[in-house]
Amino acid sequence: MLWSALRPSSLPRSRSFIYSPRLFTATPLVAPSAVLQTERTLAQTIGRPSVRNQVLFALFGSCAVFAYAAAWTNIETDEWLEKLTRGRAPRTWPHTITSLDMKNAADLALAQELREGLKNVGVWTSGLGMATRNRIMYIWANVAQSYLNVTEGKRLCWKICLLNVGVYLAWKSRRFYPYMLRNFVHDPLSGRSITMLTSMFGSRMAVVLALNVFFLDGFGSSASFHLLQRQDRLPEGQLEATSRYHFLAFFISAGLFAALVSHITHLKVLYPRLIARLSLPSNLPQPKPDTWASAIRTPAPISGTRAFFRSWFPSGQPKLRLTSRTGGTGALYALMTLTALGFPNAEIALFYPPDYSVPIQWAVGSLVLLDIVGISRGWKFFDHIAHMGGTAFGAVYYVYGPRFWSWLRTVIADPSPVDVK
């Protein structure tokens, strides 16, 4: 009776206990398997977020934007073909209509629209003073002339740049900041898909915005011109009145693919490693590397000199956190890659001194190498994984993109009417 009263019956019987008659306490023996069971329970409780919705969104979004672009390209091409052939006899129109003829006609129509716009500005400012009115019309004429002189691809790039500036101004507004934080930042753990698209435009930092505008204005027009040239060189000989829809579809699809690569890498590579590190007890020593891959992930002891340089260029590897992304740098890398492959002998130079030109392949290769180093070092200022995804998209599209675009336009084109007898 006395022994049964002193026995701690509330403790589980499945564990082994050491009984001390002096202290009347029970000390459990925790087996190593219990620690492993705790780790598995934490990982199973938190789980791994699914990437199915994001994959489907990027896939169907790219298909939708390419289908829309191909349909409107066919529509405008048919319209300009009808305008140029209407009322013209073969002797007054001896040569075959080309894509360049339709683009020249579109530029003439744009010039007429800009002239009408200048007249409207003069009517709207008729009530102002002569000096103010002349200054406004002078500014409008210069802007309109600059807009008319550039290529169609650069005009679209300017519009995207204005959109980025507008998004940046919305970030700086206290009223719109909560809305921008919810809808223009892609968080890998949020489970949302639409932010993969909205986060492409604009940035919260002025430096990143300036870099996006600079690269988009420089490489965007070159990439658009390359797509136009490749379309003309195809043996099918498809007419194309405009190339802005093709360029827009390429830009959006490249941004979605880059965001998807970053999203999958964060959730399928970085997130499991973060959970595994959090699951380890703090009092257990770090395991020694037993394979080549684990040896790379395990930081090696460094000297004082290397530690000094690492203090200036720190590694984000020990922190191992998931970061949100903003900005369309992945799409910009796709434009740079397409331009470097399309114009391998081109050189790039800054527009301010020193005016030193660099081969474009060296410049793009250096940026890709910098991203590889950033991924290995765990840098978090830029989304280097998205940069690599954009680079891969640009390289693949350089090889297969023009033929895919020609095939898609053929599929979407309206069939010729059949005569019913």
From TrEMBL:
Where mainly located?
membrane
Which regions span the lipid bilayer?
Answer: 206-227, 247-271, 331-352, 358-374, 381-400
Superkingdom of the source species:
Eukaryota
- What is this entry's stated membrane topology? Multi-pass membrane protein
Record keywords: Hydrolase, Membrane, Transmembrane, Transmembrane helix
Recorded GO CC terms: membrane
For this chain's UniProt record, which GO biological process terms are given?
A: signal peptide processing
Q: Domain named Peptidase S54 rhomboid: which ranges? A: 325-400
Residues annotated as coiled-coil are none
Where is it localised?
Membrane
GO molecular-function term, one example from the UniProt record = serine-type endopeptidase activity
Q: Which family does it belong to?
A: Belongs to the peptidase S54 family.
Q: State the protein's name.
A: Peptidase S54 rhomboid domain-containing protein
Q: Which organism is it from?
A: Roridomyces roridus
Its lineage reads: Eukaryota, Fungi, Dikarya, Basidiomycota, Agaricomycotina
